[in-house]
Amino acid sequence: MARLIQPLRRALKTLTPLPPSLRNPRNLTLSRTIKGGGGGSATTAAEMRRSAFHENLLRILRTEIEYEKDRSPLLLPEEEFDSFAVEDRTGEQWIRLRGRHRNAEDIRVEATMFNVVETSAPRLADDEPRRNISLIVEVSKGKDCPDVLQFICSAWPDSLQVHKVFLRPCDGSLVPINPHMGPNFEDMSDELQDALLDYLESRGVSDELAEFLHEFMEGKVRTELIGWMEKVKSFIKK
């Protein structure tokens, strides 16, 4: 029996001693508590960083909104121009104008917000980008006429440019896949071009309308930008 105990004692002496934290169960519990506390500190630091980013974003949004409001007064959008009633599509990138001609024709104009036109000519740093507004002008003559006359146009800051003139069904019926839409406006004779421009001008679609649309869209760009930033700010704050 003694021969078995002595080798066992020698083997136990050669074992690596336990670290102090594991010799006492109370120390083991304390060690776990300290480790848990360290993880909580890391989580708190991450939350503080997120909160700082959050507040910084809100601060920038508030600054941008105040700048846009302060740099020039925001005017209420016009509700009329000449013979047209103006329908501002808040939150959308287009507006609609409705008018009548001699109580016999309905005139509808749908205008997009600005398009930036790229040119091949080099542009100086101080030059403003060339911008236009896309227009669809519709002339309809009521239920007795099955078609609508459409003009595809561009409104420049001081002039109106026509691209296409064509008819389409006014009842919403399907248009052929490849309908003949007539020649490009610039390919028409000068006499026909002038006559069609006079036709539009007599119905209020003119260079003056193009100028009005640019002024209107300048205000709409700012109003929509402020509205967008306000919505983003409200979302971030939730």
Automatic annotation (TrEMBL):
It holds the Pfam family MAM33. InterPro entries: MAM33 (IPR003428), MAM33_sf (IPR036561). It comes from the Eukaryota. Gene3D superfamilies: Mitochondrial glycoprotein. One of its GO terms (cellular component) is mitochondrial matrix. This is Mitochondrial glycoprotein. It comes from Acorus calamus (Sweet flag). The lineage of its organism: Eukaryota, Viridiplantae, Streptophyta, Embryophyta, Tracheophyta.
